[in-house]
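Notes from the 1:1 (GR / supervisor)

We went over the backlog. Supervisor wanted to see one worked example end to end before approving the batch request, so GR pasted a single chain during the call. The sequence is below; no edits were made to it. Supervisor asked that the structure be written out right there so they could see what the output format looks like.
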Amino acid sequence: MTTTPRLLLVLTLATAALAGCGEIEESEPKPRLDAVSTPGTDFGSTLLDTRKRLDFRLRNSDAGLARVKPLEGIVPAISGAGLTFSHTCPARLDEGEECFLSVHYQPAAAGTLAGELRVSSSNAGAVARALSGSAVGALSPAAGVVAFSGSAAGNFGTVSRGNSKTLIYVVRNIGNADDAITITGPSGSGWSFSEDCPDTLAVGASCNVSVSFAPTASGISVPTPLLVRDAYNAEYGALALDLTGTGS
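Structure output shown during the call:
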């Protein structure tokens, strides 16, 4: 078979293209910090000594590019009165990987929140989101607000198999209006709950949630949290209590 100059040119270009596929240069990392809660970055009007939560996602986005370098040396930080945070972020995120951050607002004094969630990295600088809200002594318009009254320790300690331990949590309406509430108990092997709460909790009224841990196996057990929801905290993580216990 005779190779014509035109066919030779096509073969040469195809060979060059195939060779170049293995030499695509990596782009710089593309960190993105996005709010994933419905209220975005605004805690809204927050009653003193109650706690709200907003959730965020950090992603090393490919941004439509062929290859992106890993995001390295990740260090989250928070600033602003009454703010704390937790996160699942490792020190490094490869292309397309993500982690999540939760920011909690529990103000102790009335005033306007001017906070910031910032995530720095060793090879892409920092990304940040401004956080807003206001801390108030009474809600206007009036609204119900649930809170735990007294102890809200969620660690059941060590419980022998065949035995059980029960803790009672008191839920109180500390707001300035009656409050329609919904309770979701812990779910997990060995965990159960009961409650005597009405559908609507009057201002200043309390009810009880009883949680029991009866381990069926040795080791640490972490069920889903105890959640008490109302309109005030519906979009802010609910009134949540993390639980844990150890079977022996």
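Supervisor's comment: Residues 7-22 have pLDDT under 50 and may be disordered.
Batch request approved.
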